[in-house]
Write the structure tokens for this entry.
Amino acid sequence: MKRLIITIDGPSGAGKTTVSKILAGRLEYRYIDTGALYRGVALEAISADINPDDDAGLENICSSLKMKFVYGEKGLRLISNDSNITDKIRTPEISMFASAASARPVVRNFLLELQRELGREKGVVFEGRDMGTVVFPDADVKFYLDASHKTRSLRRYQELESETSQTLKSVEKDIKRRDKNDSARDIAPLKAAEDAVIIDSTHLSVHDVVDRMMSVIGNMRYIK
Ligand code: DC
């Protein structure tokens, strides 16, 4: 019997975060949102006035950046150089910067090691873009969660509605741009691993998706 590494990849708005949290809760596993790490790098770089294609500047940021996740009453928190940045990394500006900077090898290499370290003890649900393809190619169970562009845009818009003045149209445009950036980049592009179970959540509720995942995992032996 062993604790599993479970990966959930997919484009933005597919429901990865919600599903990963519930799945991890059911299994009593840890949940790790790897996009938050790219957002953490983006926040630092923006504060230092560095462009997303400035490799030397990004390398400098990464070399002095210490990020870790802490599990508290309010859920997962991201600590960056001793400050809690959890509530600062969800802006549209950071989303776009993180997507652009995530195409740079210097950023990906820096985060690759960190992510693998976080998986060392197993018993983790990892959410991201390349978790099943690059970071954990030997993961025990891999999922690729997708949904139509319209559905994903609407979900993201509803999520952001109270915090942003963005219209549905501009959210649709941002998602399209990020999809393109994330799938077209040379290293670790967003795609389903060959051995991933693909789930289209367009017409499924969160609980339907989690149930499907649990039935795949249920065929495996795991310990809590
Ligand atoms: O999941 P998210 O929207 O918070 O991720 C923000 C950006 O980070 C995303 O547009 C691409 C990048 N990312 C990545 O390249 N690889 C990952 N494993 C996770 C996120």
Summary: The chain has a mean pLDDT of 93. The beta strands are 5-9, 30-33, 67-72, 75-80, 83-84, 124-128, 141-146, 197-200. The pocket of 2'-deoxycytidine-5'-monophosphate is lined by residues 12, 34-35, 38-39, 95, 98-99, 102, 128-131, 178, 182 (CB under 6 Å). The radius of gyration is 17 Å.
